[in-house]
Amino acid sequence: MRNPGGGYGNPGNARSRGGNAYQNDYMEQQNDEQINLIAGKVGQLKELSIAIGSHVKEDNRLLGDLDNSFDSAGSLLSGTMKRLGSLADSGGNRHMLYLALFVIFVLLLVYKLFR
Fold first, then answer.
1. How far is Cα 19 from Cα 31, in angstroms, rounded to an integer?
2. How many CA atoms lie within 13 A of 64 on its CB side?
3. Model confidence, pTM
């Protein structure tokens, strides 16, 4: 049986197929919009991760420099401690007396200056 639109079969099927096509196009459009939104978020995350990576590299470099500084300060301090130990072992109490008198002199000088 021929329908008024010129096709065969149920005329409702033609409308439902056209409705499905419209619905498919609409859903495809929404999917494309969501994909574009997700692509934008992915781009932002990529930029953020690159920025974090550069900050981490800079922080690691600074920590390496700090570690080297502490190593050199530790070597200097251990050398100073060795020299102080040898000074204390070398000669009697006279060095300690000179040190005590020097500390008292410095304290008195500071006291007079800030008074």
1. 18
2. 6
3. 0.48
